[in-house]
Design a protein that fits this description.
mainly alpha; 0% strand; globular
């Protein structure tokens, strides 16, 4: 195997609709993350009734249309890209996926630096870790990929039922009151630390506590099987040629769009109606409904949106309209990290210190403004450079050689 045989995917090899989807996903992820950047998503349930109606409506819409949906699309695209890279690697003499493993390793490093030095809500390290798990499925046949995806989707439901049963059997009845007090204490401490702390105080205090809570939450909520399920569906989509050869798969894509949007919109509306009760401590009966709705309606809506974009892409008028999102997708890693840099400066104490003082509506408008800026920035950048700046660094670490940045 010669190192010179390996290089990043060229512009001619790119599937532009995938870049468009990635551009849409990175914008949706930002809108969903604004509740955590700004802090309003951490507010105790007891405070919800006291916030303005427009903030309550905005928060509902965020849960309804963005919460989990765009991360799911991003996970789907990760699996799609994995299958593409594995195929290219085998064609070029790398059957053990050495280049992909190196790519995952450096993504893990970037993700951990992002999580510990900037924002605990990082998803990159989780994707890299789950990417190594995904390697175990690279020889799995298509039918089994779908079966595994189905199993992984329902695992969180049985897990939550188990936790709920154990909780009802062994935890004292007054735990709910204690939990509510703990929520209020966490909220007041988080607002003080995040909005007033220095950089070192925040990363060693608030952010470190957030990391511990987040990773425990990922285990408790069983989010990792959901991520892997979307990875596997992405692998399946690549192998079937869903985006590479739409004509042969148009019927399947239309069915996915119709059923995905139907199930996704109804299910997510119901999920948003009980938002805040899904997979929380202590477990509740409403939480069971929330877990079931999340497990099925979130991936359904994500796939429905992806199928809708694939169908719209077939029309020249829509293709021209959607292309402006392609550069943001090609620079998804740069844009994702840029979102963190901008948002922590806006909301944390070493910047403007707005954490805890911005409602859902204001935070969402800020997120939209940032995303619009990134669309323009990405377009200008890629007119002059081959890769986004972080993508360029990541590729050089992966391929262990200098890659020209300018055309």
């Amino acid at each position: 195997m010669k190192q010179d045989n390996f290089a990043p995917i060229s512009s001619a090899e790119r599937i532009e609709v995938i870049d468009v989807l990635r551009g849409i996903a990175v914008g949706g992820i930002l809108i969903g993350n604004m509740q955590w950047f700004s802090g309003y998503g951490f507010a105790p349930a007891s405070m919800v009734q006291t916030i303005p109606l427009y903030d309550q409506i905005t928060h509902f819409i965020v849960h309804f249309l963005t919460e989990g949906k765009f991360y799911s699309i991003f996970s789907f695209l990760f699996g799609f890209g994995f299958a593409l890279q594995i195929e290219r690697a085998e064609e070029r003499g790398d059957p053990k996926a050495g280049i992909f493993k190196r790519r995952l390793f450096w993504l893990l490093v970037i993700g951990l630096l992002h999580a510990f030095l900037l924002w605990a809500g990082d998803i990159l390290a989780i994707y890299a870790f789950m990417g190594f798990v995904l390697l175990l499925f690279r020889r799995t046949k298509n039918e089994k990929l779908l079966k595994w995806a189905g199993i992984l989707v329902i695992i969180p439901i049985f897990w939550y039922l188990l936790i709920y049963s154990l909780f009802r059997a062994f935890v004292p009845a007054d735990s709910l009151a204690q939990f509510q007090v703990g929520q209020l204490n966490f909220w007041s401490t988080a607002v003080r630390q995040a909005s007033q702390g220095t950089y070192l105080e925040i990363i060693s205090g608030y952010n470190l506590n957030y990391i511990v809570g987040r990773y425990l939450g990922l285990i408790f909520d069983m989010r990792l099987p959901k991520i892997l399920a979307m990875f596997l569906l992405g692998v399946y989509a690549y192998r079937k040629g869903i985006f590479q050869n739409f004509a042969d798969n148009s019927r399947l894509v239309r069915h996915v769009m119709i059923w995905g949007l139907a199930i996704g919109l109804v299910g997510n509306f119901a999920f948003a109606a009980i938002a805040g009760k899904e997979a929380v401590m202590p477990p509740t009966a409403a939480g069971i409904a929330g877990v079931i709705l999340y497990s099925f309606s979130v991936p359904a809506l994500a796939l429905g949106i992806a199928a809708l974009i694939a169908i719209l892409w077939q029309a020249d008028s829509w293709q021209s309209a959607l292309k402006f999102l392609s550069p943001a997708g090609r620079m998804a890693l740069t844009n994702y990290l840029m979102q963190t840099v901008i948002c922590v400066f806006i909301f944390y104490g070493y910047g403007f210190g707005l954490f805890g003082s911005s409602g859902a509506a204001e935070a969402t408008l800020i997120g939209i403004a940032i995303y619009l800026f990134q669309i323009v920035f990405s377009y200008i950048w890629l007119k002059n450079f081959r890769f986004g700046p972080v993508e360029w660094i990541w590729r050089q670490l992966t391929y262990r050689r200098f890659l020209p940045l300018r055309f």
